[in-house]
Amino acid sequence: MATPTALLTPPVPAPALRAAARTVAATKIYGSNGTRVTALDEVTVEIPAARFTAVMGPSGSGKSTLLHSLAGLDRLTSGQVLLGDVELGSLDDRRLTILRRERIGFVFQSFNLLPTLDAWENITLPSRLARTKVDAEWVDQVVRVVGLTDRLGHRPSELSGGQQQRVAVARALSTRPEVVFADEPTGNLDSRSGGEILGFLRHAVDELATTIVMVTHDAGAAAHADAVLFLADGRIVDRLEQPSVDAIHDRMKTLGR
């Protein structure tokens, strides 16, 4: 399916070098004594606004921990995580929940759709949970970007896996979040559906000025990003701008894969 090219509003470019999110000496340790594991080891990184950043690394490298820490789903042992100018470690659980609901979008490998709701209801669920008015014009625009205009009345059981993940992407974008975090968003999809989802994420960056951070093990998926961060042993060991599949494979070989 072709990705739409005409939208209601033109893309809004982000200011040069503005960071949508960042970490400062982020450290995450699990366990203690003989079971102690350092998942993140003093990671300092900036996620530029209105760009698509992929995160890669061998199993156990800390990439999912970094994503979850940036998204406020996991608290650090030490260091800082900032969304814009808000330091997440300074927020109590209630305020952190509100921030995630209002300023962050999530797309996971499992679609996490409510089976009793149709596609439109699933997409607009975050606004209803927050008891805020649905921005119908914006949601209509997002729906066109992800190609769901003719499927809004269907429940998840009536949608293909690719269509369900498109609903999840639209839901993540529906509240105009500052950052969308995607954890292996194509992991449960066939190659065609996965390619469509990656195209929609790329389109959201280029046409809607969305900031996306995606963890993936797939070089083909990472090649849709503007840059790839490579982790090993809880540290960022490399960064690749304007990545190609071949260049990503070459970098991954140096990390022991």
Can you summarize this structure?
With 257 residues, the chain is of the alpha/beta class. It is 33% helix and 25% strand. The protein has a 6-stranded mixed β-sheet, with helices on both faces. A 4-stranded antiparallel β-sheet has the order 2-1-4-5, with helices on one face.
Question: How would you characterize this protein structure?
Answer:
- This protein has nine helices and ten strands.
- 41% of the residues are buried.
- The chain has one domain (49-73, 89-254): Rossmann fold (3-Layer(aba) Sandwich).
- The chain starts with 18 loop residues before the first strand and ends with a helix.
- It has 257 residues and is α/β, with parallel strands linked by helices.
How do the strands and helices of this protein lay out in sequence?
Elements: E1 19-30, E2 37-48, E3 52-56, H1 63-70, E4 78-83, E5 86-87, H2 93-103, E6 104-108, H3 119-123, H4 125-129, H5 136-146, H6 161-173, E7 179-183, H7 191-208, E8 212-215, H8 219-222, E9 227-232, E10 235-241, H9 245-254
Parallel strand pairs: 3-8, 3-9, 6-7, 7-8
Antiparallel strand pairs: 1-2, 1-4, 4-5, 9-10
Helix pairs in contact: 5-6, 6-7
